[in-house]
Known about the structure:
heterotrimer, A: alpha+beta, Dipeptide-binding Protein, domain 1, D-Maltodextrin-Binding Protein, domain 2, Dipeptide-binding Protein, domain 3, five-stranded mixed beta sheet, 19 helices, 22 strands, B: mainly alpha, MetI-like fold
Amino acid sequence: xxxxxxxxxxxxxxxxxxxxxxxxxxxxxxxxxxxxxxxxxxxxxxxxxxxxxxxxxxxxxxxxxxxxxxxxxxxxxxxxxxxxxxxxxxxxxxxxxxxxxxxxxxxxxxxxxxxxxxxxxxxxxxxxxxxxxxxxxxxxxxxxxxxxxxxxxxxxxxxxxxxxxxxxxxxxxxxxxxxxxxxxxxxxxxxxxxxxxxxxxxxxxxxxxxxxxxxxxxxxxxxxxxxxxxxxxxxxxxxxxxxxxxxxxxxxxxxxxxxxxxxxxxxxxxxxxxxxxxxxxxxxxxxxxxxxxxxxxxxxxxxxxxxxxxxxxxxxxxxxxxxxxxxxxxxxxxxxxxxxxxxxxxxxxxxxxxxxxxxxxxxxxxxxxxxxxxxxxxxxxxxxxxxxxxxxxxxxxxxxxxxxxxxxxxxxxxxxxxxxxxxxxxxxxxxxxxxxxxxxxxxxxxxxxxxxxxxxxxxxxxxxxxxxxxxxxxxxxxxxxxxxxxxxxxxxxxxxxxxxxxxxxxxxxxxxxxxxxxxxxxx
Amino acid sequence: xxxxxxxxxxxxxxxxxxxxxxxxxxxxxxxxxxxxxxxxxxxxxxxxxxxxxxxxxxxxxxxxxxxxxxxxxxxxxxxxxxxxxxxxxxxxxxxxxxxxxxxxxxxxxxxxxxxxxxxxxxxxxxxxxxxxxxxxxxxxxxxxxxxxxxxxxxxxxxxxxxxxxxxxxxxxxxxxxxxxxxxxxxxxxxxxxxxxxxxxxxxxxxxxxxxxxxxxxxxxxxxxxxxxxxxxxxxxxxxxxxxxxxxxxxxxxxxxxxxxxxxxxxxxxxxxxxxxxxxxxxxxxxxxxxxxxxxxxxxxxxxxxxxxxxxxxxxxx
Amino acid sequence: xxxxxxxxxxxxxxxxxxxxxxxxxxxxxxxxxxxxxxxxxxxxxxxxxxxxxxxxxxxxxxxxxxxxxxxxxxxxxxxxxxxxxxxxxxxxxxxxxxxxxxxxxxxxxxxxxxxxxxxxxxxxxxxxxxxxxxxxxxxxxxxxxxxxxxxxxxxxxxxxxxxxxxxxxxxxxxxxxxxxxxxxxxxxxxxxxxxxxxxxxxxxxxxxxxxxxxxxxxxxxxxxxxxxxxxxxxxxxxxxxxxxxxxxxxxxxxxxxxxxxxxxxxxxxxxxxxxxxxxxx
Lengths: 523, 317, 281
């Protein structure tokens, strides 16, 4: 169609012309500026080209979620759901939804919308790239694909009551901590008429209708997005007129915060310990992170390093204090398991000091032949990787470094190109939070298939008695430490820059990919 | 003349065809296809889902078939949909083309408007302090790594002196010309500064030659003022090679502007391309490639014609 | 001109002599000093601290991984200089024969080669390099190859232009009529005339190659750690705290890049003025 070509040329010239003209500033509008160092993809929460926290932050504004989480899961607050409880024999969870929840087009949100969304995720014909959590609902197979519509574990008891039936006993709060972040409700009254196979092509994604706190206004792809408050949002709205999301280069992080051009940077306006003095010298208030829930670990491709003793040797050779000194100064603790230090699941007896001799002994035992391993990581982690390879060299293990972007690292680990990787995660208090984070499906066959491990996860999931659960979790952590399928490095807190123009921003919640924008107040 | 244009356009199209074919083939070799990127941090797609998406994106066909499909679509005006943004490529490019054109155009214009006079003056008084200073200035522009200049400029002018904003093209809610200008100043200065270096040097050497030539001395003898001599004769002959130089550097300009765009968060095509390459976003890379190739080739054709008009010594083959 | 005439004339250009001396000294320093003092650019000295200021044990301080910056800067110099000097040679390796063929044989060869040059030159080399480097993983070797390949059209066109003007001189026709082979004509009559501009061009393009390498490293497509190059060392300056509070990390490398490129410029200018001030480049 030549018309399209002409339209594009016209659009380009128009865009060129428009860039130079316009009216003056509209100072009566209250605008909040948020910056991201990575551009987002499309509005579709279930088909993104990367499942990063940045994308999740965006979806969070357009679409609604069941709850609002903060403080690494220590706080679970109502959002679309007013309250929730376990039912049946622990295999059911009932959510009582807020009666005032509405779509941005005015229609009411009902439990049917939530069921519709779950059903869509499980639909074998749907072209989405993730099914999020349907694999734990009844009536699906192990990949979350619907097997039997009759027994499908999502049901609307009435317009405002939603019930999930799980295959195993599941605590509703555990479920929320694990999946709330990625489960957003879609409108049945709009998408219900589209066939699941065609759902990706729908124009809905260009101009989405959500029940979240914001409405999409416009965007300059890959650079800027303008959102307005959703007038129908059941939790109300702040006093702002526009929320602008802008993409900036990571080198400008501090500069834009200091100049006031940006009020909040993605995931909580966190800055590195090195930046703290500069920020403070320029009049910014920097708060110490309340919770140390940023978990850093070394991923291991088990096919590349099948001998457990070599993996253990890798762990013993690491000097975690040095790494913390380089990467997170005074805001991190060394980690030896994936349970956060402030939870009752944490087991201090797992910790051990660096032991080069032990590492060497393990290597001898395993008959390590001096072969070269590769570690892949994103460029910002270069210092950590450099230290690690140095420390491994001291023990006699040869590792070479490769800088890649995050997606390539994961795909490379999966396909076996790289043996090791470096990854960061935001932990929660949920005892099995790491199970979902681990690129488990392909990287470590034994990690998935190991019956002992599966048994632990099972029993922990079923445990009702708190004491029993804690004991099991600790046992499991010991077991994981022995297997060394991954190497925990540290838990870090962050330094948050407190916004000056805007109040009520919860930085720690931002790190969990939800923002309480309906409470934000421009001073 | 028309025949010449026709030939040039035809050859330009052939060039574009070759460029896009080569890049498409290269892209198919790139490790980590968009699909792996989509599998993302969980690798949670089951094999069946993976294959389904692969088929949807047409990734299970051989390279030449995919390229052919792309070409057919392009001829119909359909540039495909970005893997990453889910938006038609044509739209994305149309949105972000303007800002780049603005940035590069203004930068180049300033480079020429400032570089020419400086170079001419230097050639006019060779060996003088002015000549030496401008040589040094030109050298600085040519040799300093761009991103260092960017970052230090942002540090001084945005951060220390609070004179200009450090990112973006405008303040939201403010679409005035003044606001645009203040956002333009820093990135344009940097682009102009880098390009000026070559221009000053080229202008200087071209004019040095010309200013020695006899016919100018004749002109002087005839009683024309110095200014007239410079303007009428010196400029006229020097402009042609300068324009050639400037135009021929457009691809390099686009490349280095990409770095400036990235650091300043300027919503242009260059930064878009860098992200697209990082994300293995094939439709977007191809779209931007095509646009850049078209722009460069058009510029070359335009230049050829302009050169012919300006310098009567050139005739068309 | 023979070599003693050459040097006599070359010496008259002060800037060229300074440029050449600086480059030689620099090359000596980056290759000899690390070996002499057994410097290790990869070892992390955690005792000394991270981003430590210059001290007796670490003359340029340490970087974010507690590695000695003097060692890294010197080793980085090895890489940057290598890329800078070798890449233009690759361009010449490709461009010289192609330019000769295009200019001498004309016809089909000319059309194809000039068309190929246009194709290469019509695309921003930075972006094309990035695409290439995402296929073949970056290393000094691949960087030299990629940067060198980007530049071959410039050499080819230069050679082509010079061959055309040499051709016009009568003695070529004379040589052909005597019956000398193409190869003899090319190597004895044409090549010498073309070599001078090529040498000068190599000098200029070396500076450009170093600049390109630093640009690619900034974009993350360049030299990979733990190897250092001046470009990758400077990319640490993207962090505001490194830029402002620990300038010893990036300033020496930055300064060296600028001085090295300037020296190549001066050298090139000097070569041109010595060999033929009217040389068309």
